[in-house]
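Structure ticket #2291
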Amino acid sequence: MNHKKFTNVGIIGFGGYVPPLRLKVSEIARAHGKSGDQVIASLGVKQKAVADRDEDTVSLATAAAGRALVRSKIKADQLGAVLVGSESHPYAVKSSGSIVAEILGVGNDYLTVDLEFACKAGTSAIILIAALVEAGLIEAGLAIGADVAQSRPGDALEYTAGAGAGAVILGSKKYHWLASLDYVTSLTSDTPDFWRREGEKYPSHAGRFTSGPAYFKHVTGSTEKFLLATNTKISHFDHVVLHMPNAKFPLRAAKKLGINQSQLKAGFIVPEIGNPYSASTLLGLVSVLEQAKVKQKILVTSYGSGAGSDSLSLTVKNKSLSEKKHSVRFIDYPEYLKIKGLI
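Resolution: structure written out below.
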């Protein structure tokens, strides 16, 4: 896909939901006889969000979407499409999107489909909704990235695999835009760095290959492609969000791309919640939109194993109030295992 310039699409609502339960990385390390300080230093993550027993990808997605609807000031039945991107859909055969839409009260006159592309399914949902709006097929649509990330106990992923959901409602010019969607590009290759076959409970990954070349090739490559295609420089953007599998990777990619700390700060949420897979980039964007000033420009680059990245740029049009921050509760490792049904 070459770069696409949008002229009739903007964000009219956005929202995020992160479960209140937290598990400290040092607690996971202690359970496996490792040094918490060393693990935290290597990942840059202090704690991760944990979905409770009564939470799954659909409930997280619904909570985030409900907040986006409140911000948008439109009614649910005005949505022409609902797309849910995730790698932890509750059903192998049954739509997550239809459940979310039913709970929200969307009605029956809408398009839905579940998306999968590891951690970039949420940004792909944004692009597809934007295309429907731009084409005039719908006036408004809901894009969600949500996950209850899977990780095998004792695996390196266990330290960061979190839970959460980010939701964005895009609409035509008939609505009040909070930010315009300006350009999108994508970069994709068949790179098997991380996968989970049908019926398997936990994902597999290619170790050192996962933790380096695949992520950096696509994140930096997609961002560089975007800058070249749109004739822009990284300095043109006030805020930048890069997919956050841990805290070290986006910082290293940012350094290579010439992105400074002030550009990353508003959306750099991974140290406090871990990596909620498809929700990571969208929650970073939600955090930026809550803090960004009018006329500021935002660049977002996602990453999904398998492998691909989407890059999107936005311009803030109107200020939106921040969501109320809810208190968190820390749990220990045995309680975590109980919640996961492992003991």
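Closing remark: Residues 43 and 246 are 6 Å apart (CA to CA).
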